[in-house]
User: Fold this.
Amino acid sequence: MPAWLDDLLWTYQNVVYALGINGLLALSMYVVLAVGQLSLGQAAFMGLGAYSSALMTLKLKLPFFAVLPLSCVVPVLFALAIGAPTLRLSGIYLAIATIGLGEVLRAVYLNVGLFGGALGLSGIPNRAETWMIYGLLGLAVLVLFLVGRSGVGRAMEAMREDETAAEVMGVNVRRYKLGALVASAVLAGIAGCLNAHVSSFIGPNEYGFEPAVTILSYVLLGGIGSPVGPVVGAWVLTLLPELLRGLADLRGVVSGLIIVVAVLFLPNGLLPWRMRRRGA
Amino acid sequence: MFAQQIVNGVLLGATYALFALGFTLMFGVLRVVNLVYGFYFSAGAFMALGLTRGFGLPIWLALPLAAVGSGLVAVVIDALLLTRLRRVNAPELASLMVTLGAVLALYSAMTVALGPDIRRFPPQVLSGQAVELAGIRITDAQILILAVTAVLVGGLVALMRLSRLGLAIRAMAERPDAAGLMGIDTGRAAALVSFLSGSLAGAGGVLIGLNFNAIQPYMGEAMMLRGFVVIIVGGMGDIGGAVIAGLLLGVVEVLTAGYVASDLKEAVAFAILVIVLWTRPQGLFGRAQVRRA
Assistant:
């Protein structure tokens, strides 16, 4: 195979991985926004999944079929520790605590020897396959779609529109919020595990503030009417810098402006779709 | 040794208090967690850097100019992003998301324009001399931080408690609509609060940039964790609480670094944040109103 073709396939392969993984991350953000909360912990949960799964593979030599499900454990524990105190309070506390989580984890990865410091962890075997990533993404979309059509989805939408009214109608608001945060941690943790096992290297700066906000921009671009929107948003924003190379440096500016524009002018997202429900 | 640690802790804490002051003021009056706040901090540091490096101004002139400059940036950003949302009484998450997107765009634009490298103030700005008092070393940057923090806190409290303007701002913090009915120009008061907190952030950026002598676009983001801890522990919107919480956090961090492990500073700060949210979400001093779900 000529070198340029090899090169092209290699680049292309990484984009294929990134599209699937970012789709999962977008869903992880969607789940929380769907109950009217804002968590900026998706990148942090992803980092926890990536680091914990990489350590399980490298240090404990566990097989991948065990590592993949176990990679949710640490993110879920953190989600519970943060969600339980903050979700009784107004939404700003969850947002604050999850932004703080991202910052503190970056410092911990940088300083603690186990996590490899600024060099990160390298030499992670490439055990995740394309079909696993897209299989899990498809499964996640399907499950979220079915949940969205069920009574649970109706309760979630009611909470998003008017929390007090939903509570009065008998929706256990706190349980739904915590459940959504845990589901979000599961999705992000798995995305992190897949990310670590396709890129062979993970570092502390991959899970910081910028990725956290970028994930939010995926969802706001796609809209939260259905689980398909966020995935499309993630794909558009992942492909955009690949197609327009000059844009790579301005990626943060674009993601940030998408959020500003979406909130100020397009409350339903740039690509609005609404799910149809039986009996609705 | 222990006395030196405590002094270092208080001095570090003064920078945290200074950083959090404008943040908590903005939340207390405008009821918005403005995440662009960290950008005002970086902007202040870069303005002072430009003024001292480019124009050779002394720091006592560059500091107030940078503070005013970042205050004006804050007024513009507030007018562009938040005034509109305030007018339609948008939910708080909308304003959070807008400021979040805006701050990422601003940091990235700043990094593209100025480069990600760490920059330093020219050496003649501060001599770096240290005074020894009863065996305790204090550098001139630390003295400047302490003095400026004291002046700004005093000035802010005096403004809020003694002037008619402060009365108007406090009225607005209490009930914005009622304040409007009483003839207070709430738009102007909001702009003023933005200006004040933007300048506090800018001044904080200059001083902390001097203290650590490292200035780069994302420096404000790194401070946000401390800012969050301080405003939650001190009570959201509580100025006195922010000062005490800032000092406490500084002392705790220095003692952790000195006696436990320096790697755990941030983790301890975050643990404090989570514990306070579990046990006393109204802040340690209990004066802030908890906003329950």
Q: What stands out?
A: Strands of chain A lie at 121-122, 201-202.
